[in-house]
Amino acid sequence: MRIVTTTEELREAIRDSSANTVGFVPTMGYLHSGHTTLFDHARKQNDLVVASIFVNPTQFGPNEDFEVYPRDPEGDAAKCRAHGVRLLFMPSVAEVYPDGHATTVTVDHLTTELCGRFRPGHFAGVATVVAKLFCMVGSQRAYFGEKDFQQLAVIRRMARDLNIPTRVIGIPTIREDDGLARSSRNVYLSDEERAVALSLATALRATRAAHRAGERSASALCDLLAAELTRHPTVALQYAELADPESLKLLRGTTLEAGQGARAIIALQLGRTRLIDNAAIDHDDPSFLTTRLGA
Ligand code: PAF
Fold first, then answer.
1. CATH classification of 2-171 is 3.40.50.620, yes or no?
2. How far does the centroid of ligand 1 lie from the alpha carbon of residue 54, in Å?
3. Which residues, including other chains, have CB under 8 Å from residue 149's CB and lie 6 or more apart?
4. In this structure, are residues 170 and 146 in contact, taking their beta carbons and an 8 Å threshold?
5. Cα separation of 78 and 169, whole Å?
6. Cβ atoms of 123 and 83 closer than 8 Å
7. How is 233-267 classified by DSSP, letter by letter?
8. Contact, 121 vs 61, CB < 8 A?
9. Nearest atom of ligand 1 to the alpha carbon of 155
10. How many angstroms separate the alpha carbon of residue 34 from the centre of ligand 1?
11. Atom 1 in ligand 1: which residue has the minimum CA distance?
12. Active site members
């Protein structure tokens, strides 16, 4: 595996590889099995796997954890190597945002609700850096986890709207055996918080079960989701919503129709850690089927 830090070296290495197909996995590092699963998918579908590690300052708000975001460059490089990444791009902030940088990519509509309400500017930071990385790498495919479902929808729309020929592929969330979604930020959780954090998966499972049992009122399903989360006094719920999986339009107040497609999406603050999770409501969600507790 080769590690490169400049766009020039990156492009040269991709050209020299003479790969017909390139699969790209952008990350912010502190890699876990959620990321290595993306590498494995990329390796199966492409001649060359390129990963990037860049903790993108523009997607963090002023009171967020940019400075203390967990970092482990050596451990990350070893994980990339073990999972078939052949080119690892680790640019500096100046390489990605050179002096005088003046262009921001904003995606309307999909970014106003859900996390957009609580993290102003976050999705513009994500869309901008991912658009730039797509242009730098020029891969045929790029892989993202479904855990950040709004991010995935925003990136899909951005690539489509800007005619970027990279196919955006979403991969089901990887969970611990007890259902907790893997996240680099799980390291912030104390043992007590880790136990309470299970309520995200429990709430999603309960909502899926209610839908399976015949509940079709989106508002009732959202209320059930919220009730499961707020039974823990330490949880500060940000939102618990059902949304259209593509447009992210909120479904509260509507009746779900057969085959319509609905995603339950939640975010909460637990101590100093912000946690998000989501699940398909109207069909089997592979991320739950692979955990020990199922459903
Ligand atoms: O999901 C992430 O790790 C980041 O938001 C991404 C997509 C790498 C952009 O910085």
1. yes
2. 8
3. 245, 263, 265, 278
4. yes
5. 24
6. no
7. TTEEEEEEEEE-TTT--B-TTSBPPTT---EEEEE
8. yes
9. 7
10. 12
11. 27
12. 35
Would you write out the chain's pLDDT as a tens digit for each of its 295 residues? 999 999 999 999 999 999 999 999 999 999 999 999 999 999 999 999 999 999 999 999 999 999 999 999 999 999 999 999 999 999 999 999 999 999 999 999 999 999 999 999 999 999 999 999 999 999 999 999 999 999 999 999 999 999 999 999 999 999 999 999 999 999 999 999 999 999 999 999 999 999 999 999 999 999 999 999 999 999 999 999 999 999 999 999 999 998 889 999 999 999 999 999 999 998 888 898 777 667 6
Q: Ligand 1 centroid vs 29 CA: distance in angstroms?
A: 9
Q: 203 and 223 in contact (C-beta within 8 Å)? A: no
Q: pLDDT by residue (tens digit) across 107-134?
A: 999 999 999 999 999 999 999 999 999 9
Please list the alpha-helical segments (H only) found in 185-241: 191-212, 218-230
Domain boundaries defined on the chain: 2-171, 184-289
The fold for domain 184-289 equals Pantoate--beta-alanine Ligase; Chain: A,domain 2 (3.30.1300)
Q: Which amino acid is at 126?
A: V
Using alpha carbons, list the distances in angstroms from residue 251 to 26, 79, 222, 227: 31, 40, 9, 18
Identify the three-state secondary structure at position 276: strand
